[in-house]
Amino acid sequence: MVIDLIIVNLIVQGQNTKMKAISINVPPKIADAFEKADEGSKRKAEIYINAWLTDFFGGQSANERLFSIMSQATAEAKANGFNEAEFYKLLKTDE
Fold first, then answer.
1. Are 27 and 1 spatial neighbours (Cβ–Cβ below 8 Å)?
2. Bridge partners of 3?
3. Same domain, 46 and 91
4. 10 and 22 share a domain?
5. Which domain holds residue 89?
6. 92 and 54 part of one domain
7. How many CA atoms does the CB half-sphere of 30 hold within 13 Å?
8. Cα torsion at 63, 66, 72, 73 (round to 10°)?
9. Predicted confidence (pLDDT) per residue in 38-92, tens digit
10. How far is the C-alpha of 64 from the C-alpha of 59, rounded, in Å?
């Protein structure tokens, strides 16, 4: 049985990335479970599958991508005037 994986638009490194739909063969039980799942569960499965495929085919480990995104976010925050004092102020307001 073939299940269509409609990979949703995800925000990757601060940019909207257009996705393409793919089809893969899976056991009938998996296809049936996916087809019967609620939309939230389908979305969660699609995100996990997308992450796994990105890791498998991406040529960059998940940790490398995470640290790259964190470095970019830090640089962007600093460029926009966000500093350590503001960070601690935000942490204090969440208590």
1. yes
2. 24
3. no
4. yes
5. 61-95
6. no
7. 10
8. -140
9. 999 998 998 888 888 887 887 777 778 788 888 888 888 888 888 888 878 877 8
10. 10
